[in-house]
Write a structure and sequence with these properties.
By secondary structure, the chain is mainly alpha-helical. The chain has helices at about 5-10, 15-25.
């Protein structure tokens, strides 16, 4: 992680527990966690395997 990213996390008003729970949310379309989706919502797959669901937008369960 870059120092810039670490600094943003440290100065955030969100707790690390809140950040972790946010990224652990699953997508209702593909079932992958939010962290597996890029900044536009497109699923990039899990464990270096592409997502075959065609999920182009994150939709929380």
């Amino acid at each position: 992680m870059t120092e810039t990213t670490e600094s943003k996390i440290e100065t955030s008003t969100l707790s690390k527990a809140e950040l972790i729970s946010y990224f652990r949310e699953k997508c209702a379309i593909c079932g992958h966690h939010r962290i597996m989706h890029d900044e536009f919502g497109k699923c990039e797959g899990v464990m270096n395997k592409p997502c075959n669901s065609g999920c182009d937008v994150f939709n929380s369960e």
